[in-house]
Amino acid sequence: MMVSLCGSPPPGFFPAFMIGLAAAAGFLFYTHYRISKTDYYKEEFVYFSLGKRIILYLSFLMVNLCTIPLLLLICVLIFS
Fold first, then answer.
1. Cα(80)–Cα(74) distance, rounded to whole angstroms?
2. Cα separation of 53 and 51, whole Å?
3. Which residue among 3, 13, 37, 56 has the highest number of C-beta atoms inside a 10 angstrom radius?
4. Which residue has the higher pLDDT, 51 or 72?
5. Could you tell me the CA-to-CA distances from 68 to 5, 20, 26, 41 in Å, in that order?
6. How far is Cα 51 from Cα 31, in angstroms, rounded to an integer?
7. Alpha-carbon gap, residue 15 to 39, rounded angstroms
């Protein structure tokens, strides 16, 4: 494994990172959409108001989207 000590990322790092981030975000949106259409989701969250469901959904999505860049960065540093 070769680590760059001059402080600059290797060429192609940022495009690959942004593509990975966009792919992970797309996967999360798709997965959450599929889960929201299941009968279990409709039965469990029927008692919550629409505002509370949106807040729960956005907070879960925000936590996931905050951890994905860290995981991608760690994977890039380990496997590059």
1. 10
2. 5
3. 13
4. 51
5. 25, 9, 12, 24
6. 20
7. 39
